Structures are given as C-alpha cells and as structure tokens.
Amino acid sequence: MAQGKIEPFKIEVSDEVLADLRARLERTRLPDEVPGSAWDYGTNLAYLRELIEYWRTRYDWRAHERALNRFAHFRAEAGGEDLHFIHERGRGPNPKPLLLLHGWPGSVYEFTDLIPRLTDPAAHGGDARDSFTVVAPSLPGYGFSAHPRTRAMNIQAMADIMFKLMNGVLGYDRFGAQGGDWGAAITSRLGEVYRQHLYGIHINMIAVGAAEGRRPAELNDAEKVFLGDLERFRRDETGYQWIQGTKPQTLAYALNDSPAGLAAWIVEKFRTWSDCHGDVERRFSKDQLLTNVMIYWVTGTINSSTRLYYEARHHPWHLKPDTRIETPTAVANFPAELMRPPRSWAERAYNVVRWTVMPSGGHFAAMEEPALLADDIRAFFRELS
For a surface tag, which of 54, 78, 136, 156 has the fewest beta carbons within 10 Å of its beta carbon? Predict the structure, then answer.
C-alpha cells in the first residue's frame, strides 16, 4: 500500500476459516482440573466447556461481522505499517478529532458502544457541540492491521505511527487522544512528545510513574498503600506479562493453533480485570467475549500482539528524571482497574487537570461503562481548545 493512501476496508472472514474453527472446536481436548478449585488455578474448566459449546453451536460470527461493518473501516500505511482503523465522522457543529486506542487482550471491538456516544452525543442524551470525529485503529500487530516484521515495535514506535496516521495521513493538525491499557501508554507517549498537536489526553489507566524508586520517607500514606497493592498485583497477576515479555513465540504455537486455548487465555483476563466480582457474565455476554476472541483468531494476531510485551520490556519507555507529561491530562479512575495510584502520584508524571473517581467499572471501561466513559471524555475536551 502506498504511503498515506487511504483505502476502504470491509471485514470479510472466509467460510473456510469459519469451517476450520468449527472443526477445531469439535475436536477440543480439555485438560483436567482440581475438583472444586473454581478459577484459582486459572480459567475454570466448567465455564470454558460451556463457552466452547456455545461458540460451536450458537455463536453467530456473521451477525457480529455485519455489526462491525456498520462503522466506516479503512486501511492506510503510516510510518511503514499497514494499519486498519475505524474513522467515524462526528455529528455536530465542530467535531474534535479523537484518537481511541485499545490494548491487550482487547481490540477495536471494545469501542462498539463508545463510538456512537462520542460521534453523536445528541442521540445519547448529550450535546451535539461535544461531538468527536473518532479514529480507532487496530494497533500494529493487532486485529486487522498488518503484523510488524521488525523488532522494537514498542510504545515509542507505536506513538510515532499513531501521530503519522492522525497528522500525516488524515491531516489533523490537532486532535485529542484517549486510551486504556497499552492504549494509555501510547496516549501518554503522544502527550510527552507531540504536545503542540494535542488538545489533551484522556486515560483510564495510569501508564507511567515518576515516583517509583523514591525513598519511603518521601511517600504519603496513599502512595504507600498503592505500592503495597502494586506489589500484590506483581506477585499474583503478572505471570502472563513474564511469558509474553520473554518467550511470546513459544506461547503463540499453542494459542494460534487452539481456539479453546486462545479463549481460555483471553477470557480469564476479562474476568480478573473487570468489575464483575468473579462472574464474568455480569459484565460481558458470551457474544461479547467471543467476538473479541474471534478478532484474534481470524486474523492470527495473538503472536504479533503479545510481542508488544517483549518489545516494551527490551526497549522500555520511561520519563526522563524530573520531567512530566505537560499535555493537559484527564484520568478516569475506575474502581476495578489493575493499578490505581493516588492523584498525588499521577501528578508527578502528568499535568492532571481532571480526575474522576468512577462508581463502577474496571480495566475494560469502554465495554463495561461506555456511558460513564463517554460523559467524562466529553466533559474533559469541552473545556480545551
């Protein structure tokens, strides 16, 4: 694809891919499980068996494919990478361009209910003057974007690519950016290096810390509590990070070959990281869970997506000492987010001008609480010019 050339794109998964998936699901060989262990050792056997049966007999990819194709999809080359992105025009007098960035194990599917609330707020109880023109790319190596073929496709590289998409390809001199998970890190990096082109950045996960490594005497009580929570998270919940950050290729052989294995790997994160209180379907239907998994399956991107952990570990991004991101920043603080540093911690790394403590929701905020997230995004950017 020529640099900067924009081509319409439609999601069209072949019948052969779907037939192969059904055959693999029918041949699934499940492991054993310690009786009564529930989710203690990882994905629960009874739930995964139920999910696979639903996937095999009742799930309708074509219906979700049609729903996704109601958005305006495109492909373009930016920074040497072939990117897929949704580009939905705002319905209002002066829509601000807004870049929406997902993370792992998510996809642009996370934004299905969020995008209409941002592009057409008047249709969702808001003010048309708060509308956005939304650009929601699949990150390089994710979803319907191409698989990167070079090393060091890390946070810094992805931020540069996203800027080239927004500014060089789409021609937006100024825009806003919003993200969670890796999307929050990339959004933060954009705020660090492209401040003059950004109205502001909105994140629902604190992606960089300027205070870690400070002496205990320099920490306030809230920061000490946060560091204790962070240590427990690192001890109990970061096994996937170590595997994906050190040997992603080895993991990929299993997940790229087994749809049941892929679902088990991804769905466990949706349960653990969401505000579902142990019942994943309090927050996500089987159709939502499987559609997100399907995007990884039909594109074969589990390997290229998890490589971001390797690249971020081996080519990390840190703020320079005694600096912070000066772009105006909003933080939507959802109660079940993985890491919830206090505002005092965040303000050492960001120019925080809005801090919203949400009543509910977790790591997948755009799916769990699209109305709350949309309201906060609109309120933040309303004041920026």
Answer: 54
